[in-house]
Amino acid sequence: MGIILLRSLILYLLVIFAVRLMGKRQLGELQPSELVITILVSNIATLPIEDVNIPVIIGITPILALVCFEVIMSWLILKLPWLRKIVSGSPKVIIKDGVVDVHTLSELRLSVDDLMTAVRGCGIFDLSEVQFAMVETTGSFSVMKKQGMENPTREDMCISAECSDPPMLIVSDGKLLEHSGEVFNIGQRDVEKFLRSISRGMEDVLMMAVDDWGKCYIAWKNGDKPFTGKMKV
Amino acid sequence: MTRVRISVGIILLLVGVSIFSGIWADRKKALLTAEAKQVSEAFESGRTEDARKYAHILCRDWEDTRKKASFFVKYDRLLELDRIAAHFESMAETGDDELLPQIAEFIHMIEL
């Protein structure tokens, strides 16, 4: 029993390492090669856990090899477009100028119902609103509405707006997140100085978020009303 | 790029380990086969004491090999070989005729 637990732990850690090695691409929508790897890895990992007769190394070796092949292959795909076409295929246009391409649709073995489901998934219920649609290599649909059907934007209405990145969390549970601090060039001392100016300490902070303009939001651990205002450093 | 480097490193490591383990397995296979043949030759020519001595060396080397082989060979196969090898010494000592087919089976399984 203990051996099974230990094997499970080893393979659990290995699969986490494998998924991390494959990177963020793997955690989103899967390319065909990534799908193959995911299925294979999940299958192989269970074998040495279930069967104590199989040495752990027999499970570790193929998992590591497959994941490394995948990483190397994705790097090669990045460098060689022709390889990308072979391994991942290419996106297919299924609606152009508002006209459904029946030939491509049948080539992709998609029924009209599938098409309607996908379009509804993009928040469009009337096909006449669609200007252009394509099926991506991951199998997801990208749909563009006819320009006349789009919601007006600030630019259309000539309303000016300042562009800024969203606020980032810089303090979490009383601890400064150094990476976020570096983005805004804010150090521990700056945060502590600011908190002292509002009669608080770092240990009181549940979360603190700051944006490009120094606008900050602070939630307190004791449940006090959150602070919103400009952060002066 | 770091991930690609790590992956290439792991692949090279796996290739290295595969080559090393392949060479090691081949050497051990040759050693154990030669020792097993030595036992059967001594037994066939009626040199019981020599056969027992060689069987003892074979069992000792097999024990050493088994410990290392358990890292990459299925345990049931090793247990089967272990079961066969365990009787070599006593069979050689008592002059049991079953020794020869057992050694033949041992060599066959080692080669597998």
Could you characterize the architecture of this molecule?
The complex is a heterodimer of chains A (233) and B (112). Chain A is α+β, with helices and mostly antiparallel strands and 233 residues long. Chain A has helices spanning 2-22, 24-27, 32-50, 56-79, 81-88, 102-107, 112-121, 178-183, 188-197; strands at residues 92-96, 99-100, 130-135, 141-145, 168-172, 175-176, 205-210, 215-220, 227-230. A five-stranded antiparallel sheet of chain A has the order 6-5-7-8-9. Chain A has a four-stranded antiparallel sheet with strand order 2-1-3-4. In chain A, a hairpin with a 2-residue loop joins strand 5 and strand 6 (175-176). The longest helix of chain A is centred in the N-terminal third of the chain and has 24 residues, at 56-79. Chain A is flat. Chain A starts with a helix and ends with a strand. The model of chain A has no long low-confidence stretch (mean pLDDT 85). Chain B is mostly helical and 112 residues long. In chain B, 86% of the residues lie in helices and 0% in strands. Chain B is built from five helices and no strands. In chain B, helix 1 (2-44) runs antiparallel to helix 2 (48-69) and helix 1 (2-44) packs antiparallel against helix 5. The longest helix of chain B has 43 residues, at 2-44. Chain B is elongated, with a radius of gyration of 18 Å. Chain B starts with a helix and ends with a helix. Chains A and B meet through helix 4 of A and helix 1 of B.
